[in-house]
């Protein structure tokens, strides 16, 4: 069928399609490659007023450091500005957010999928509304309380807030995932004398990992990518990566050390690159899971 | 599942959402009705050799005591909503009375901070969303029509702009479009205008922000539509071919109707996400040309003077905006639910 006359494409159409896809690929990938390459140059090369080819050849980098590539941006960011502290904070925040939000989200999502009362609908609708509300609007609700209780600025505070912000989305995803696991599975366990929790633990937990991993990826992305909330509720010494990058911009533009920010940006992108490399299938299935039901 | 069991299963997540989403929502509404206390002023009469003068000073103790006694501030009702930083009713009424033309009136309105931000937020939401759906659809159709082996590669590179941290993604684009960056220099060369700069032109800045919005979200539309394309029934396509439909007609009358629910889904998600546009404005340092509702809130909250009341008021109005955007979906879901039960 694939090669029948009706489906064979004329050459110009094929060329046009190829052209379009290649243009999109360049649009999607080129900025990252360009920034990666440029992060090993000096500022005069990456932001070259005189000649744009300097960014490729590194003429100024060569005259300053004797080689067309230099790690000074990374050295400045990681050692001088102690970016590793922020990386460490991000790692802690992400681990705890993902684990906590999956634990409580799994319980909640499972309950929602196995209950047929009317309030389930209302809980899901509430979660949808909460999902739609921009998190930054909640921050002015947090701040007075956090100041009063002296919990502002610490990592655990940020972790709890991010877990809560994560919940609506986690619930929706896990709810639709648990719906796809046949109810008979845990029903039969209950007939055999298990309580609901035992049925969940012995029957559902062993088969839930694909859905949980997919949801976990998105929880991770939310915690990793958040800028608005974390920059408002963490103090300077506890900042995660993204607020720190924003802070670099504020201070380093005057010092002319914008390359620190470029190096930090590349450092922050690298883990995401690896993530896409290994979990592409899960990410795609997570993106389409909501849609197919939709 | 029994009510009791359900309760215990749902308790942790329900509690988290209750304490950190529902209660802050109540809190921002109540905060928006209060304004910070003004300093207590005392007037002291100083009598010297040249007569008496009245001197007004701030009574620090009384001010602190008042702030202690009523930490919420003074109740002002809807005053904060109507002040210059928000709905600015007085300024608008004045502009309406004094402006000679509609254009003049509009320029006054769009120089008020709230309307400026609202204008950009709505333009961003309603320009980016349809365009990114179209781009995503075009990519999906093209990849689907070409070699299937291409799929993995295209999806891999397409996921990058979407998954990368929004602030990082916008910085990466900004450094390229900047007048000293590679695309900026290229544009200067094309237009033969060495002074062409993003930072100097509102129109260019808006266009670059829109491009960022489309670039970062089109992959989502692409992935969803591509998955949808795999489910288009082959029989219908074949039937259309036998009836002599051209390629375009097949897409127009078979593929698009089949994908329509997905288009609604992507549009809904993107309307919600684009309405909260914030990071690109920080990344592009665009605040001189474009601000958004989220940006105003962030700006009010940051810095030395945390203007909680002003931020809370903008927050409430942002939440109302989201509610309006979301209402068609909610109504539809409610109807579906009624029909089912």
Describe the structure.
The complex is a heterodimer of chains A (294) and B (341). Chain A is mainly alpha-helical. In chain A, 78% of the residues lie in helices and 0% in strands. Chain A is built from 15 helices and no strands. In chain A, helix 7 crosses helix 9. A two-stranded antiparallel sheet of chain B has the order 1-4. Chain B has a two-stranded antiparallel ribbon with strand order 2-3. In chain B, helix 4 packs antiparallel against helix 5, helix 6 packs parallel to helix 10 (202-229) and helix 6 (113-145) packs antiparallel against helix 12 (247-275). In chain B, 72% of the residues lie in helices and 6% in strands. Chain B is built from 15 helices and four strands. Chain B starts with a helix and ends with a helix. Chain B has 341 residues and is mainly alpha-helical. The chains are: A mainly alpha (294), B mainly alpha (341). At the A-B interface, helix 1, helix 6, helix 7, helix 8 and helix 9 of A face helix 1, helix 6, helix 7, helix 8 and helix 9 of B.
Distance between the termini of chain A: 31 Å
**What is the C-alpha radius of gyration of chain A, as a whole number of Å?**
25 Å
Tell me, briefly, the overall form of chain A.
Answer: globular
Oligomer: heterodimer
State mean pLDDT of chain A (0 to 100 scale).
87
The total beta strand count of chain B reads 4
Order of helices and strands of chain B: HEEEHEHHHHHHHHHHHHH
Distance between the first and last residues' Cα of chain B: 19 Å
Structural class of chain A: mainly alpha
Q: How would you describe the shape of chain B?
A: extended
Give unreliable regions of chain A as ranges. none
Helix content of chain B: over 70%
Q: Give start-end ranges of low-pLDDT stretches of chain B.
A: none
């Amino acid at each position: 069928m694939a090669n029948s006359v009706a489906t064979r494409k004329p050459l110009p159409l094929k060329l046009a399609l190829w052209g379009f896809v290649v243009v999109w690929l360049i649009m999607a990938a080129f900025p990252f490659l360009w920034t990666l390459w440029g992060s090993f140059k000096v500022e005069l090369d990456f932001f070259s007023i005189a000649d744009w080819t300097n960014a490729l050849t590194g003429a100024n980098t060569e005259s300053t450091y004797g080689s067309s590539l230099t790690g000074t941006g990374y050295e400045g960011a990681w050692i001088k500005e102690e970016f590793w502290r922020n990386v460490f904070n991000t790692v802690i925040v992400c681990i705890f957010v993902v684990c906590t939000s999956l634990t409580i989200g799994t319980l909640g999502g499972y309950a929602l999928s196995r209950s047929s009362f009317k309030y389930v609908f209302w809980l899901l609708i509430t979660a949808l509304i909460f999902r739609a509300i921009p998190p930054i609007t909640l921050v002015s609700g947090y701040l007075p309380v956090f100041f009063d209780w002296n919990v502002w600025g610490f990592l655990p505070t940020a972790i709890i807030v991010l877990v809560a912000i994560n919940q609506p989305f986690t619930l929706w995803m896990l709810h639709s995932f648990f719906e796809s696991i046949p109810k008979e599975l845990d029903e039969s366990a209950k007939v055999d004398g298990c309580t609901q929790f035992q049925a969940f633990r012995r029957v559902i937990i062993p088969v839930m990992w694909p859905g949980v991993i997919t949801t976990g990826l998105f929880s991770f992305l939310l915690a990793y990518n958040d800028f608005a909330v974390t920059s408002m509720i963490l103090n300077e010494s506890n900042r995660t990566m993204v607020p720190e990058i924003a802070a670099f911009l504020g201070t380093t533009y005057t010092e002319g050390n914008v390359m620190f920010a470029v190096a930090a940006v590349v450092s922050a992108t690298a883990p995401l690159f690896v993530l896409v490399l290994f979990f592409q299938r899960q990410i795609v299935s997570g993106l389409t899971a909501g849609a197919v039901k939709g | 599942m029994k009510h009791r069991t359900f309760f215990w299963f749902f308790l942790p997540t329900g509690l988290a959402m209750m304490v950190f989403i529902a209660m802050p929502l109540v809190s921002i509404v109540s905060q928006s009705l209060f304004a910070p206390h003004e300093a207590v002023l005392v007037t002291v009469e100083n009598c010297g050799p040249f007569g008496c003068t009245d001197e007004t000073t701030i009574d620090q103790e009384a001010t602190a005591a008042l702030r202690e006694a009523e930490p919420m501030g003074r109740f002002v009702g809807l005053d904060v909503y109507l002040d210059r930083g928000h709905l600015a009713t007085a300024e608008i009424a004045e502009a309406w009375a004094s402006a000679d033309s509609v254009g003049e009136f509009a320029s006054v309105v769009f120089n008020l901070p709230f309307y400026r931000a609202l204008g950009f937020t709505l333009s961003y939401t309603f320009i980016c969303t349809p365009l990114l759906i179209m781009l995503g659809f075009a990519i999906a159709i093209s990849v689907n029509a070409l070699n299937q082996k291409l799929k993995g590669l295209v999806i891999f590179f397409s996921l990058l702009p979407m998954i990368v941290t929004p602030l990082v993604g916008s910085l990466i684009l900004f450094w390229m479009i900047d007048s000293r960056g590679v695309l900026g220099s290229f544009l200067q060369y094309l237009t033969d205008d060495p002074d062409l700069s993003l930072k100097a032109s509102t129109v260019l800045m808006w266009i670059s922000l829109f491009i960022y919005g489309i670039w970062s979200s089109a992959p989502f539309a692409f992935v969803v539509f591509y998955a949808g394309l795999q489910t288009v029934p082959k029989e219908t396509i074949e039937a259309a071919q036998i009836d002599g439909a051209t390629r375009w007609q097949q897409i127009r009358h078979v593929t698009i109707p089949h994908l329509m629910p997905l288009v609604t889904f992507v549009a809904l998600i993107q309307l919600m996400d684009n309405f909260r546009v914030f990071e690109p404005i920080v990344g592009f340092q665009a605040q001189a040309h474009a601000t958004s509702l989220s940006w105003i809130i962030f700006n009010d909250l940051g810095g030395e003077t945390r203007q909680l009341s002003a931020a809370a008021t903008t927050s409430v109005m942002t939440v109302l905006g989201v509610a309006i955007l979301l209402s068609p979906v909610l109504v539809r879901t409610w109807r579906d639910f009624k029909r089912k039960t």
